[in-house]
Amino acid sequence: MKLLWKFLKSNICNETRDQPAWGWSLVLQCYNACMDSRPIIFRVHAVQRMFERRVTEEHVRQVLQDGELIEDYSDEMPRPGGLMLGKRGTRPLHVVMTESTKENELIVVTVYEPKLSYWKPGFKARKL
Q: What pLDDT, in 10s, does the model give residues 74-117?
């Protein structure tokens, strides 16, 4: 999966954050196709935040499967990962995740509802 992520990112995707290329949707489709068969590990921090914010494991799984990758953290983390945007009912939900290729699993780092004070409408871009 890590090799697929890097290949798709470097060969298909436009690297600019302001104008995401059509390639990101392909990366996400491939990523979501592999997601169903992989275990998801929740970090302690993520579980604490989920409890505080009344977010269920099912909500997180739905974001990982159907959400949109809005920030790529692969260059900032030791493993491929990023920030995904999805919905919990009608409310937006952000999931920070990373991938462990060694164990072939996804790791949820944290989960939160984005606030308009930090995010532009639509919750896909940060305010400057």
A: 777 677 889 999 998 899 999 999 988 778 888 999 999 999 99
Please state, in angstroms and rounded to a whole number, the distance separating the CA atoms of residues 97 and 46: 10
Question: Is the model's pTM score more than 0.90?
Answer: no
Which burial class, exposed, middle or buried, applies to 41 when counting CB atoms under 10 A from its CB (0-12, 13-18, 19+)?
Answer: middle
Is-contact 46 25, C-beta < 8 A?
no
For the chain, which residues make up each domain, given as ranges? 39-112
CA-based radius of gyration for the chain: 14
| Interatomic CA distance for residues 7 and 96, integer angstroms | 21
Element (H, E) at 46: helix 44-53
Q: Is 94 helix (H, G, I), strand (E, B) or coil?
A: strand
**Domain boundaries 39-112, CATH class:** alpha beta
